Amino acid sequence: MSSIGVDISDTSLKYVRFEPTVRPSGERAIDTWGDITIPSGAMAGGKVHEPQQLVAVLKELKQTTGAEFIRVSLPEERAYLFETSIKADTPMKEVRACSSSVWKRTSQFRLGRRTSTS
User: Fold this and answer.
1) What CATH code would you report for 4-74?
2) Distances (CA, A) of 26 to 6, 41, 75
């Protein structure tokens, strides 16, 4: 499934999608990129204050790119952060397995007719 990477700030939504194939050199080429201005006051400090304005921006993204799925970055203050303790004698393989499972839980969001901001 192809998806577009999206970064949402208080002032703009930036997006990028890479071509689905890797070049012989191992490099990837950018297929689609751009930004959409978020109306002033729609967001502040990473919080959505005017949901309908943000929904309009997401609809514009879908219309512009044809994207069905997006991968969204969250500002640190909105991300789920936690601290944990690991015993000094824990094998590195076990530590890596735990951290790997956290990364695998990332989600793709489908851009459909109904886009929830909550």
Assistant:
1) 3.10.20
2) 23, 42, 30
